[in-house]
Amino acid sequence: MPPLQRSESRSFQDIDFTLKKQFDKDKFRPYQREIIQAALDGNDVFVQAATSFGKSLCFQLPAVIDRGITIVVSPLLSLMMNQVEALRAANVDAHTLNGNTTPEEREYIYRDLATGHPRARLLYVTPELCAGKFFRERLELVDEQKELARIAIDEAHCISEWGHDFRKDFKRLSWFRESFPDVPIMCLTATANAQVRQDVLSTLGLDKTPERLKTFTTTAHRPNLHLEVRFTSDQADDRYDDFVSWLKGVYARRGAGDRRAEIDARHERVESVPGIIYTIRREECEMLAHALQHHGIGARPFHAKLPKEAKEATLAKWIANKPGYDIIVATTAFGMGIDKDNVRFVVHWRLPKSFEGYYQEAGRAGRDGNASLCFLYYSREDMATARLRLERDVPKPKDEEGIKNKKARLESFDRLVAYCEDTGSCRHATICKYFGEEKVPECDYTCDWHKDPAGLKRRMAQGLASEEYIGTQMAQGMFDGVGSEYGD
Ligand SMILES: Nc1ncnc2c1ncn2[C@@H]1O[C@H](COP(=O)(O)OP(=O)(O)OP(=O)(O)O)[C@@H](O)[C@H]1O
């Protein structure tokens, strides 16, 4: 039989059948079918959709159906591991090449690629790897055999210096289109504004063939997330008491009457209310987790300096809803790519660095579609500290890219501050507007403004330190020394 040409994909296979057989799902979510079909038809595809939309399936299902291997570029190790594990459990031949790959696995993958007809359906790689000569040569071999099915770029906003997570190695992904002009590319992101979108398309060279490009942008709106800002100040120092009394209230409601009976019938624990608290400093992450444990709350710290085994054990027990592991207290970026569906709350203990980062992290909540609470403690002291830190992070950008990225980061941060200090609009509407949406989303009393606009105004007036006070403190250099131990 003559070899298939690239245009002759196996897309005639029934995608509904594959959805059920390989992914054990009954039906597509809105737009998934259209996106998958566009990919199978050989188009370049740009997908922007809310967190938990189900973007991964949009490249995984075509990868199973199509001839050849799909290369998935992702910046997140946890996401790669998580997805590869899930795919293997579903009998899909998937692998990952990253810093944690064992030498044996690495050798196996390179041998597989060297055949030109790899058995693997999906290979998850880092953008750094894609820049390497050895890997590129292997892909060229595969492409010569017309076995390079597709390049999927996850978290594609990292390509743009206008994006909050810009990574230089992502820019070099332009190599794919230059080297394999007829291999389709799919980009996926949850957080991109119009400028970032345009930048991604032009960097990758996808804008040169608009007739090949299908763009799907769905709303960023997550109607099941209850969004709230809680105002505080250094003087009040009331985050801890506020959080504990809120959580104990949740436990008390779950432990009473009919709710209790339902919980018992499901053999659940009253305290099994999975959540994430995002902190900024490692020291605070540790202290907070220990204080909560001391109060009988199942909280565990999670940050980069903990031993790998401890982190893996914590994560596994949290995912499995084990007693003592109800809440992860983490430094930023925890949870990206970790697919736990029943996270009932996400708390931002301190102001995050960017608008996108905030919404990505909040988006870890309620992936099962059930109501979940996301609240952020906002103080003007934090705001002043964080802004100074951002200014200092990139003191003197050396090139055009650096200047653009610094500008974008400061702008994103300022928009987040404006969001926190806004007492006159729906939180969901502000978020959707930030991501360039014109249509105002339905908010069924799922934000603090819709619930009680007058109360929101009052709480802000009472809760925050005054702007004059912050101004004086800044002038005296009070916020200058903070921030040496930030990061994950
Ligand atoms: N058609 C479907 N039916 C049922 N579940 C689905 C369907 N599509 C995806 N899912 C599930 O939805 C969850 C979220 O999917 P996925 O991890 O791909 O989200 P995402 O869009 O990448 O979100 P994020 O940007 O937050 O990482 C996963 O558990 C996935 O198995």
TrEMBL record:
<feature type="domain" description="Helicase ATP-binding">
    <location>
        <begin position="36"/>
        <end position="210"/>
    </location>
</feature>
<dbReference type="GO" id="GO:0005737">
    <property type="term" value="C:cytoplasm"/>
</dbReference>
<dbReference type="InterPro" id="IPR001650">
    <property type="entry name" value="Helicase_C-like"/>
</dbReference>
<dbReference type="InterPro" id="IPR032284">
    <property type="entry name" value="RecQ_Zn-bd"/>
</dbReference>
<dbReference type="GO" id="GO:0003676">
    <property type="term" value="F:nucleic acid binding"/>
</dbReference>
<dbReference type="InterPro" id="IPR004589">
    <property type="entry name" value="DNA_helicase_ATP-dep_RecQ"/>
</dbReference>
<keyword id="KW-0539">Nucleus</keyword>
<dbReference type="Pfam" id="PF00271">
    <property type="entry name" value="Helicase_C"/>
</dbReference>
<dbReference type="GO" id="GO:0000724">
    <property type="term" value="P:double-strand break repair via homologous recombination"/>
</dbReference>
<dbReference type="GO" id="GO:0009378">
    <property type="term" value="F:four-way junction helicase activity"/>
</dbReference>
<dbReference type="GO" id="GO:0005694">
    <property type="term" value="C:chromosome"/>
</dbReference>
<keyword id="KW-0378">Hydrolase</keyword>
<keyword id="KW-0547">Nucleotide-binding</keyword>
<protein>
    <recommendedName>
        <fullName>ATP-dependent DNA helicase</fullName>
        <ecNumber>5.6.2.4</ecNumber>
    </recommendedName>
</protein>
<dbReference type="GO" id="GO:0005524">
    <property type="term" value="F:ATP binding"/>
</dbReference>
<dbReference type="InterPro" id="IPR011545">
    <property type="entry name" value="DEAD/DEAH_box_helicase_dom"/>
</dbReference>
<dbReference type="Pfam" id="PF16124">
    <property type="entry name" value="RecQ_Zn_bind"/>
</dbReference>
<dbReference type="InterPro" id="IPR014001">
    <property type="entry name" value="Helicase_ATP-bd"/>
</dbReference>
<dbReference type="GO" id="GO:0043138">
    <property type="term" value="F:3'-5' DNA helicase activity"/>
</dbReference>
<dbReference type="Pfam" id="PF00270">
    <property type="entry name" value="DEAD"/>
</dbReference>
<feature type="domain" description="Helicase C-terminal">
    <location>
        <begin position="262"/>
        <end position="411"/>
    </location>
</feature>
<comment type="similarity">
    <text>Belongs to the helicase family. RecQ subfamily.</text>
</comment>
<keyword id="KW-0347">Helicase</keyword>
<dbReference type="GO" id="GO:0005634">
    <property type="term" value="C:nucleus"/>
</dbReference>
<keyword id="KW-0067">ATP-binding</keyword>
<dbReference type="InterPro" id="IPR027417">
    <property type="entry name" value="P-loop_NTPase"/>
</dbReference>
<dbReference type="GO" id="GO:0016787">
    <property type="term" value="F:hydrolase activity"/>
</dbReference>
